[in-house]
């Protein structure tokens, strides 16, 4: 067999022990918060039928799906010669694809298992997704999403609980963040109020640029996009509005007179009122009219969370959708959810040095190995300490002391136990503190007390 | 968009909240034991380069690899017209495949990251693998493996620690099992001793059939396979051997006179002696000469664990390999590892009803929702109980009581809290025990005490 220099596909990653320890710290923190709010974990297969995935992420998304070659003699079962167009040929020889996000599989899951589920259904899901994006710094072809959704209830209390979840997670991870909130109905209401319903996205983009390019340039750009002078004129109170969140909402009340606009403002106000009455521990919630994410299926509240101390994109986001399961034939299932971006959270925490020291520590104590009867004596101590719940290693070979100590050092093991003839005869353990260098002859119970946190 | 009736690919599974709770119980138990022995978790990508995977699992394995279609215009980059043979065409349009097991990616990882690792390197890995097997009962196309390996040490203490790990895991899961052990060198020694080195597998298979078809038939079968009369004659002491483990080992000592045979027997005896001196809590370790698993890369000890109370295949297995990383160019790295089959362990525990009740419980208490001020009062209690670490839900809509109670019932939530005007005025919570039906008016602290385990 030829020797291959090993590597992994572009845009994928191995995670070392240290990286995994840090990643698990993030995942466990998030999971713990989800569980406290009564969300249950589910998993779906990595592979979905292409019929489930195609057409759900736009044309660009279809291209970014990883498709799995049919097993066996795929050419014979292609139903004739392959189409010379690769996109079309792909469908002849591939009927499965890798999960692109957790949202579409979740919708499929809810529809497929609707008779077994208790609604409102509160689920979370932490699994990798795959996208054939061009790999670049901070963008991977395999990455984890952590999604939490409640489906089958249109109560705004769900939005409030998601905000509390964001608050709890970032308090636990000690990351300073701002949660921006907007509402799809408000965006629709603005566009409607100025008589430019079809320009909702252009208007949102324009509002977003206000700080950077100024009012005049925004107005010019809107006209370029095809908005009438009258529409642009009607938009001015929104573009010029000032003051507190309450004052802005009041300005919008007077402009967004349509039913959908008023409904959106009602929703925003209800959420703000709940949050104000209940209080938050760590995060700030801010109205942000420029927020327009995922316009495809969102129908109500939209959320986005940004880290305050690091320049990085959104680290959490989501919103309300009224008809996600409709694509699979189940109507009238309103839901709301958010997704935590584990990779970006990891980057933020690394940059700000926010991982607790204890996360990295794997083994608490290493028993040096002197072989023979000393080894057997050590093995019994090792066993007793493991039974007490400690993470304990014994060096597997009775090799040079220097090598064994280097092992402890490299693995940052804080204690080393030395058991030779003296220790055996006295039924003791010599415990060396690898940080202070201190050394003492102790009983097993004393060692347990010393190495406990 | 046409409505698709949703389904998932053959041989794959969705895991419901209940299934996930049970699966996590198994994974967490196993992880906890691995950690106590100083093993660290790593992860590798779902996709590996096909050059990493091909040729590592035999011809049959190559066919069972899920191959990923190259992105973009794969036909143009196929380097000419497609070969009419599907197996060959696949290599023109696919350069990545899904992980088939965790062993080859582990070997690749060790070679690729050798300069960053501390040896002996102790890692565990819990991730799904994919095989394009024909789906059937108990055999899936996506399933999890839980592998634990130590590489870079040929000490038999590592085998002993793996046996202790098996003991700890099955004691914690409360499954009665037998651990069968054999040694690849002993198998080679037997074949060598009787002058039929190339028939090692035939001999192992024959020994395995002894109980079922009897000595005469076994001998006839061996001759059919091409063993000489002399070889079969020489094998008789092994086939006929009786008595305790020690007596069997003694019989083999007298037959297996080659260096490799004696070495294998030494290894077995050393392991037995360690295990005897240290003692095990739950499992039995038995020499089983018929055990021959994974002959391709195993070179020393081989393990297999079977459940005693359920008819099912092996639920854990592994062994020593002296040159796993050699396929990627790193020689002289002996290692030993075992793999826990989470799916089969799940099936055993389900059949024997071994999951603790507490595993299933997600939410500890549900607050009924009466809307308005009652709702706000409840939300504050909910928040206080979550801060104490309890898993708490509030029903999101102020809907009919019956519907809310049904929700608690279906989700098996053991306590429901009712907060109306009376409770608000008295700063109390009415707590209903859903099992006994008892109801009492309590303070928040009293509720916390009641619902704590």
Record the SSE blueprint:
The structure is a homodimer of 453-residue chains.
Chain A: H1 17-36, E1 40-41, E2 47-49, H2 50-53, H3 58-64, E3 67-69, H4 86-93, E4 94-98, H5 103-112, E5 121-130, E6 142-151, H6 157-173, E7 177-183, H7 184-193, H8 200-224, H9 229-240, H10 245-255, H11 259-278, E8 284-287, E9 301-307, E10 316-321, E11 335-341, H12 342-351, H13 357-360, E12 365-367, H14 372-387, E13 392-394, H15 401-410, E14 415-418, H16 421-426, E15 429-433, E16 439-442, H17 444-451
Parallel strand pairs in A: 1-5, 7-8, 12-13, 12-14
Antiparallel strand pairs in A: 2-4, 3-4, 5-6, 6-11, 7-9, 9-10, 10-11, 14-15, 15-16
Helix pairs in contact in A: 1-6, 1-12, 7-8, 7-11, 8-9
């Amino acid at each position: 067999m030829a020797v291959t220099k090993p590597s992994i596909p572009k845009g994928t990653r191995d995670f070392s022990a240290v990286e995994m320890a840090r990643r698990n710290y993030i995942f466990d923190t998030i999971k713990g918060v989800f569980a406290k709010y009564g969300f249950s974990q589910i998993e779906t297969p990595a592979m979905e039928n292409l019929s489930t995935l195609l057409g759900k992420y736009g044309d660009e998304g279809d291209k970014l799906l990883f498709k799995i070659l049919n097993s066996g003699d795929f050419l014979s079962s292609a139903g004739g010669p392959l189409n010379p167009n690769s996109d079309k040929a792909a469908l002849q020889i591939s009927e499965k694809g890798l999960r692109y996000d957790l949202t579409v599989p979740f919708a499929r899951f809810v529809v497929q298992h609707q008779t077994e589920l208790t609604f409102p259904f509160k689920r979370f899901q932490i699994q990798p997704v795959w996208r054939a994006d061009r790999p670049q710094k901070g963008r991977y072809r395999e990455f984890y999403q952590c999604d939490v959704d409640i489906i089958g209830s249109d109560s705004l209390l769900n939005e409030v609980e998601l905000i509390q979840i964001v608050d709890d997670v970032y308090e636990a991870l000690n990351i300073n963040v701002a949660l921006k909130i907007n509402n799809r109905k408000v965006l629709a209401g603005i566009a409607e109020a100025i008589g430019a319903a079809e320009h909702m996205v252009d208007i949102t983009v324009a509002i977003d640029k206000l700080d950077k390019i100024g009012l005049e340039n925004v107005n010019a750009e809107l006209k370029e996009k095809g908005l009438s002078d009258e529409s642009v004129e009607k938009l001015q109170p929104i573009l010029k509005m000032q003051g507190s969140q309450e004052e802005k909402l009041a300005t919008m009340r007077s402009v967004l007179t349509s039913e959908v606009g008023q409904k959106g403002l009602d929703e925003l106000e209800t959420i703000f009122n709940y949050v104000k009455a209940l209080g938050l521990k760590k995060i700030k919630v801010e109205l942000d009219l420029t927020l327009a994410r995922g316009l495809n299926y969102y129908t109500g509240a939209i959320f986005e969370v940004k880290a305050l101390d690091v320049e990085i994109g959104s680290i959490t986001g989501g919103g309300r959708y009224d008809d996600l399961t409709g694509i699979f034939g189940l109507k009238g299932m309103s839901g709301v959810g958010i997704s935590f971006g584990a990779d970006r959270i990891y980057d933020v925490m690394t940059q700000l040095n926010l991982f607790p020291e204890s996360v990295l520590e794997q083994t608490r104590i290493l028993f040096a190995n002197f072989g023979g009867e000393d080894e057997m004596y050590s093995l019994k101590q090792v066993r007793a300490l493991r039974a007490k719940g400690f993470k304990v290693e014994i060096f597997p070979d009775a090799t040079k002391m220097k090598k064994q100590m280097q092992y402890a050092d490299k693995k940052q093991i804080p204690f080393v136990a030395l058991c030779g003839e003296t220790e055996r005869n006295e039924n003791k353990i010599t415990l060396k503190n690898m940080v202070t260098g201190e050394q003492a002859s102790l009983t097993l119970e004393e060692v347990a007390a010393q190495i406990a946190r």
